[in-house]
Amino acid sequence: MIRTAQQDQRIVITGVGLTAPNGDSLPEFRSALLAGRSGVEHYSIRYVGDTLAGICHFDELKYQKRKELRRGTRAGSIAIYCANEAVTDSGIAWNEVDPSRVGVYVGVTEHGNVETENEINEIKAFNYDTKVWSHHHNPRTVANNPAGEITLNLGITGPHYTLGAACAAGNAGLIQGAQMLRLGECDFAIAGGVSESIRTFGIFAGFASQGALAEHEDPARASRPFDLDRNGIVVSEGGCLYTLERYSDASRRGAKIYGELVGYAMNSDASDFVLPNPHRQADCIDLALRRAGLNPSDIDLVSTHATATPSGDVQECAALRRVFGESPQTLINNTKSFIGHAMGAAGALELAGNLPSFDDRVCHPTINVEKLDPDCNLAGLVLAEPRENCRIRTVLNNSFGMLGINSVVIVQQV
Amino acid sequence: MTAAEIREEILDILEAIAPDEDLSNIDDSVNFRDQLELDSMDFLDIVMELRKRHRIQIPEDDYIELASMNSTVAFLEPLMKDIQKV
Fold first, then answer.
1. What is the ipTM of this complex?
2. Which of A39, A76, A300, A344 could be A108's S-S partner, Cβ–Cβ 3.0 to 4.6 Å?
3. Do B20 and A132 count as a contact with CB atoms less than 8 A apart?
4. Residues B10/B56, Cβ–Cβ less than 8 Å
5. Are residues A270 and A210 located together in one domain of the fold?
6. pLDDT mean over A383-405
């Protein structure tokens, strides 16, 4: 049980660095979520043409030189920005941190597609002569790239790797960071998820072929989880990395603590490549609750994964109904309605946007629900407008992905 | 291309692969590595750009000829004499 853990086994969040389509810091992001401000825009990408996407606008040169930008990847650049912002936000004296005791754990949905597509497009102009295939291709496409770029940028010599976990990756990165701190593999973890997926045409084309790519004349209204007229996913880029520390270390240095990771779980559907399985999702939520020593009624807010696909939203609601059916006071919201689906960053970003609710006592809404799907009509859904004067101490964050990967984290105010 | 045109072409390539560097005071007789932050991957970029732009294949054994601006221009002059500056 995590709740009975020793002080050095309790894991807390001490810093947040993020970039989302509607904000490049937690205060900006939170402000947009409370103001109902979307980050979805018109977008065009080769072969697919005009579509929609959530695009980040952070200052790439804040922590990188132009040459480093050219050498690395978009995912690496997002990761570097988020890692630096998180470390700064943590207030730790970075020059006094032993770099060999820092671990970097970054969740990704996929990595390498962007660079591979770019290179194929490049050699196409040379009649597919592979002699002009870039020597940068391999370091850009190795699966650890975004995490490795962080270590190069910050001089970290501890372990680094990415976690390939489809759209459950943001939570998976966070969970891995906590586990490595508990195991003593590091003393300071930078963990979460990133995504550069809007730079690959394949992901748009794939969702379109699947009948799961959102379309709407107004980009801000395109991502519509739980709405009867939802027609698919808005693909977005983004990143959110946390600094994690043992509670004993964080309290010793007087760190600001956003919350404690009191429970988590991951499991697998083992039922379908694409279709979610509400029974296994509910099992995953139950397992996280058991590990946290909490009942469903102890959860004040559920941050849903719902992506605005017709079946996916209904399946998640079925899972939530099973677990929270007797807990109508548990609030439920959705962040993708604002920013689209930030893929590997989604879980981490969606959790971050809800953490300020511990202090401001506001639950941000789910926007774009004009005709609520009766199959998604859950008692605690917060729609259209923020819910104020809420007592929110415990947030449960869902993040699920293809091949039936489920992840849940529970964060509690300390 | 003349020697002067080849020099301009190399400067143009360097601007792309080393965008943070000030190339206005480059000393043609000094090794690139002694005055610019270039590593082995950057030199491969020079080779790649010449291949893409002008179809020039530089054997690996000759990479050493790209050490300075003077040595690079001298090495490329016979290879690029029939190429028109665009």
1. 0.94
2. A344
3. no
4. no
5. no
6. 98
